Amino acid sequence: MSKKLVIQVKRCFKEQFKTNPLVVFSPGRINLIGEHTDYNDGFAFPAAINKGIVLAISKSDSKESYVFAFNKNEIHKFETKHIKPLKNGGWRNYMLGVVAELRVLGKEVESFNAVFGGNIPQGAGMSSSAALENSFVFGINELFNLGLTKHEMILVSQKAEHNFAGVKCGIMDQYASMFGLKKSALLLDCRTIESQTYKIDFKDYKWMLINTNVKHDLSESEYNDRREVCERVSGLLHLNALRDASKEDIDRIKSNISDEDYQKALFVINENQRVIQFSEAIKNGDTKALGNLLCQSHEGLSTKYKVSCKELDFLVDRAKENPNVLGSRMMGGGFGGCTINLVKKDAFKTFKKEVSKNFKAAFEYDCDVYSVKLSRGTQIIKK
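RESULT FIELD:
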């Protein structure tokens, strides 16, 4: 986490509210493989990262609560007993949703003051929304001694996203942000909401994220559309979710669904299998297999699930041409955001320079390149 960001948020809080706050860090996440599997009760392979949200929060004697968004220089005041989703509310709806969902559970949330700031690149597919939700549910739980477990907290965060932000997300983002472990990724079973920890050390290789800096307007509506397709197909099969389906199952009902829906369902079934194969490749130290699975995942996301875009496909194609890149795929909901690439450490700078130059030449604006460290999940920051 960024010490500079912690200092800035704490200083801003003290200037605004003249008291010492409780400080929480909640990380963003990357997902090594397993895209769009979480809302199908499947498997995913996320990890928390060292970029995230810092929240400073304290109780207030006022009737109203005040929340200040440090990066945006925006403040929102509200009463915790009277909360509704705001039209075009942006960050406010994630935070308000958490308070509202806590009240649904019968938890008494009194007035509070808060300042939050973050260093997760927006729209990059690193789940800034889950980090924001988790920082608030964790901070409020601690502040008012609500007694929630971490599992209960992530369900509050997920419902906030469903009911206030209007995105019918799975549980992966909130889980990874809450439960992440240093230098590790989590093989997450999205049905049982339990995970196995895998220490990540790819020796000569490290992760590179390349942000297209584009977010096409389709993203939220198309995300919800993909979920509806999956639920419709699993319903026709009389299954709880596509996690339980095989290719033979969907072949049986192929004449009852469009080819587009068939391809989307097939992607989910194959992607679920790739996650398990990926975990086996980590155990066996088979980096070549890891790279191949990343590329297969992107091919499916682009041609079958159709959630990629020309900028993401361009970056993956450039990575596949480079012998120092083991594998590459788009990461996140799609239609923009980042690619995740497994790149040889001693070629990292050269590839960064080369791909940045090629991207600028093709699209006439810059992409951003990051390396990230795998981090601990949501936590209180001691003084």
